Structure formats: structure tokens, C-alpha cells
Amino acid sequence: MKAFMVAAAILTLVAMPAYAQMGGKRHQSDDKKTDAQKPKVDEKAYKAALERIPDPKEKYDPWGVARPADPAKKPKQNP
């Protein structure tokens, strides 16, 4: 009987993480409420907002901080 109780306890401990990952059915009703509260995306307004973004005057250089834009050119000196 003791071996049966130990086996049942081990089986329960092994099954608990798998049950926790499944999420359960009780939380699905909450998802429906959040979907209704999300604002609808208007494609025309989105495209109009993208058109209002001004074009950059100069090209963006992501490495501009790491290296100078105009490196000083020094001629090599022969020893």
C-alpha cells in the first residue's frame, strides 16, 4: 500500500507541470472580453499617418557613432 501511495504521489507531481501548461478552460472567457475592448485598426488612417512622416534629409548611418563619417586620410609614411 505504501508503494502505491508513493507511485501516486510521483505521478501527481509529474502531471502537475503538464496541466499548468495547458492553461485550463476557465481563462478563455476573459479573452473574449479583451477582444471586444481592442480598438479596430482603420487602414485608411494608418496609411495617412505613414504618409505624414517626413522623409529624412540625410541617410541614416547606424554605425555613425562607432566610426567617424569622414575619416582623416593620412598618407602612409615609409621608414
Automatic annotation (TrEMBL):
It comes from the Bacteria. Residues 21-79 are annotated as: Disordered. Residues 27-61 have a biased composition (Basic and acidic residues). Residues 1-20 form the signal peptide. Keywords: Signal. This is Uncharacterized protein. It comes from Bradyrhizobium canariense.
